[in-house]
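Homework-ish question, so no full write-ups if that breaks the rules, but can someone show me the predicted structure for this set?
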Amino acid sequence: MAEVTLNPLDPGDVLDASSINDLMDGIKLAVNDVEADALSPGALNANHLPSLMRESKQVVIGGIAPATHSYTGMAYPAFVAISQGGTPLDVTLGSSYAFSADFGGALVCATLSVESLGASTFFRVESWDGAAWVSITRSERVAGEGSTHVSIRTLLTVADHAIVSQVRVVVSQAFAADTVVLRDCSLSVLILHGPRE
Amino acid sequence: MSWRFPKHPLLPGQTVTPEALNEGVRPAAEELSGQLNEHNWKVGTIPNEFNCEPDCAFVWHSEGTFVNTVGAAGAIVLQSTHDWQDLPGLSIQETMPSCLLWVHVSLWAFPTTSGGLLVQPTVALAIRIDDQLIQESIIGGGDLGNDEEQLGSVRIPLCTSIVLPVGSGEHKITAAFRALGTDDDTWIYSREIIVLQMRR
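A: Not a homework solution, just the prediction itself:
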C-alpha cells in the first residue's frame, strides 16, 4: 500500500480546489493502492463465509435399567450391531459424501457406558460403503472387567473406502457364553470441508 | 479499514475552517492500515463452500494401526516406569499456520507377561505438543504423589482429547503413556491419533 500522506490545512492557507485536493490526495492514493487480497486477520467471518461444516449428526441410545441392552452368543471375530429398543447405534447421514481434495476425513466419536462385561469385549466402528459394512479395524477397542466406559475416536478416510454415508458400532466377545450389558451409548459423525494431509 | 462519518460535516451557511476540514480527514487517514477488514466486504460475499480453498479452514491429520495379537507386528511393548513414554506411530509432525488444534488419541492396552499371565498395572495416557506434556489431557493420575488411584484393569481402552492454540511453524503432536505397579510389560494394540487444524 502506498504511504499515507496527510497534508493538513494551516491557518492562513487559501481555501480553494487546489488546497482541498491536496488535503485529500495523500489519502486517496493510499486507499486506491490497497490490494484486494490484503485481508486483516478475521476480515472474513460468518457474515461473509458459508458454513464449512457440511454435516454433523449424533445418535444416543440406552440408559440405566430398564433401558440397558444386552448381547450374548457371539464370539470374536463375529460382531453384532449395537441397538436398544429397536433403535440401532447407527448414524445415517443426510447425504453420501465422497472423499476428495476438499473432503479428506469424517470424524467418528463413539462413547459407550458399560454395566457389565465378559472376560474380553471387543468394540469396533463400521462404515457403509454403498454395498456392505466395512470394518474399521484400527478402531477396535477391547475392554475387560473393571471398565466402566469405552470411547472410540476414528477418522474415516479414502483409505477405508470411497464414500461415507452411514456409520455404526458393533460388539463381540472372546467367549460366546459371556454377556455384555451396556447403558447409554452415543455415536457422532462430523463432516467438514477440508483435506487430509 | 472502517468507515467513519466525518466529525464536522459541512452544512449550508457554515463557515469552513481549516481545523474542521483537518478533523474531518484525519480519522480516515489514521484508520488506514493497508488491510481490508470485515467492514469492507459485503454480506454473503462467498456464497458457497466450493468457492473456498480446500484448506481455508480445516485440515485433518491422522495415524492409526490395527493390532490384536500378542507379539504381532505393530504392537508396542512398554516397560513400567515413572516416566512418560512416547508411543511410536502415534505422532503427527507438520508445519502449520497459527490455529487451534483439536487432538484425539484413542487406543487399548493389554498388560501381560511373556508367559501370558495377566496383571493389573495402573496406567495413564496423555498428549504431548512439542515435547510438552499437556496436563489437562492426562487420563489417569497426573501427580504420583497425590493420585494413588489410576486407571487399572486387565484390558484398558483409553481415549483423551484436547483443544489448544498453536503459533505458526512446525509442531509435533504425540501420544504419551505411563504404566506403573508391575514388573512386567504393557502392550499397546489398536490405536489412532487424529489432529484437526482449525484455521478460522
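Now go work out the reasoning yourself. Hint: The radius of gyration of chain A is 29 Å.
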